[in-house]
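Homework help board

Subject: predicted structure for assignment chain

Our instructor gave us this sequence and asked us to write out the predicted structure in token form, then describe one feature. I got the tokens but I'm not sure how to describe them. Can anyone check?
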Amino acid sequence: MTDVAIVGAGPTGLATACELALAGVSCTIVERRAAEPNITRAFGLHARALELLDARGMADELVEQGNPLRTVHPAYASTVDFGRLDTRYPMLLVVPQSGTEQLLSRRANELGVQIRRGAAVTDLTQDASSVRLHLDDGTELVTQYVVGADGAHSTVRDLIDVGFVGESYDMPMLLADVRLPSGADSPISQVGTEGAVVVLPFGDGWFRVGAWLLRPEETGTDFAQIRRAFHLIAGTDYDMSEPRWCSRFLAQRRQARAYRSGRVFLAGDAAHVNSPIGGQGMNTGIQDAFNLGWKLAADVNG
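My token output:
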């Protein structure tokens, strides 16, 4: 029997596993994805998440591969000056989520964490001393505790029936990672009567672009729609090309009614979601992991 089973091998689940393993707690991650994806999704780390990763010797490697922005001009304010923060990391570090996941995955492997990929949870039962996870391959995992870090559409949250209260934002969001012509290396944001657009550089020739439309279009590919949105709002699409990832969605603001049910805990997007504006989703998930990790380890260790 493993001490703790973690459902989800995203940044929250991996960070939780690393914290537990550092404290000598045996843990297994169950991840429905069969392989590590090369996706971006979350795009930035803020000072507090970087400070926590720095406490485990992992922040500087991310800073080296990312693009630290000291000042940004978001659509909803004149200027945000991260350089004024009293921290080793006075920045918004623009780095793909895949980079953060790969770093945490390497550390988890070094610490002996078992990651079972291609395994989905189908059911969960618990009693006073253990939790049983039933997997889609017919196997069962018995553990003292479970952490559901399986995202906004969390199976674990559904199985413990704590709800996910809140609502969706009305304004659809379009996101993509694209190439822009050389020389375009600064953040861009623009607000118009039709919505808002933003451009954030990863520092390696790739850019995260986003558009928030007041009157959405329903035709064309996601990339075609985001280019039209930029023309409509900013008057140009900055010659964006080679989209490696696109997404169109309605953002939500929701929260589980409880983060714990018996021996089962929720963390990250499984517990709470918010608008991606500001880039706080992955950051709050990593902070959840560090907070829950030491407490759960202390309990397991008596």
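Reply (TA_rk): Your tokens look well-formed. For the description, you could write something like this. The two ends are 17 Å apart (CA to CA). That's the kind of observation they're looking for.
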